[in-house]
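User
Here is a favour to ask of a fellow structure person. I am asking you to supply a protein in sequence and structure-token form. Please set it down just below, with no commentary around it:

Assistant
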Amino acid sequence: MSPEQFQQKLFSWFDNHGRKDLPWQRDINPYRVWVSEIMLQQTQVVSVIAYFNRFVARFPTVQSLASAELDEVLQHWSGLGYYARARNLYKTAQIVAGNAGVFPQTVAELSALPGIGRSTAGAILSIACGQSQPILDGNVKRVLARFHAVHGWPGDNKVAAQLWQISQRYTPTQRTGDYTQAMMDLGATLCTRSKPLCEICPVAEGCQARQLALVKQLPGPKPRKDVPVKQLYFLLLLDKENRILLERRPPTGIWGGLWSLPEFDDPQALQDWCLQRHYQMHALQTLPDQRHSFSHYHLDYTPILAKLENPINNVMEGERAVWYKTAEITTLGLPAPIKRLLQQHVTEDQNDEND
């Protein structure tokens, strides 16, 4: 099947069956496409829709995003995970706002911005600007790897280079935005990772993986590695006014820039930390162990709930640690597991005391 035939069949399918009512497909401009593409990295469409709507309602333009506080941006991102995406979104917004809100018009310039890779740049330029630019997100990798029976893990440089060449060859010069959307739709709805719907795929007759009975094997899996496990203890420390002690995490790394609970490698480190600050605790309660999985390790954590007897200062350690009232927690950028802990234990305690 030639690239032209592939495009024709794909357009016909997209015109009749493609998704055209997603929120980022309305009022299309580089900003909205960029925000949606960043959110859709590592996250499924169904999860992104509500976050996207809230995000662009609060930050409708790149200038409004750039002028906001990072805390508020992270709070609107809280729950989506992969928080480096939000920090890079904020950095890029400030750069673009400094250019009168105009996004670069080349892949090279866009790719130089924080958090924007070649595929995201291609999606922005093809969908929002009508340029003929190839993309290679996870869905498109799967479609092309199967269609051309490309063996190997797409994350491997040699395999990725081969797929980029194919993507370039099949990208049309007309209806570029529709083609990009159609390819992503095809991978997300028909050419899925498991149980692909080959019988109704518009390009099935040219699919080499189907002809060779290799659909289940392609694309090749990522080489397996043992996933390490990290153990931590989180301290939910409440003062007499039922305020919770939270610490802002460093700007880079896991949960970078978010507010979290003080964490420790073991109970003794927790006790030493409290002694150094002259905290007199009582009613210590060890809560059930929990697990949160990241892409590269598992975090097993034990929450410890405690009450503080002696009065303390409101702000410590250069404003990195702050005592927050329960009502203020909802305005903060919090990692999802920390937010759940606070909702389950801190707000409940507050309600109990108010009863």
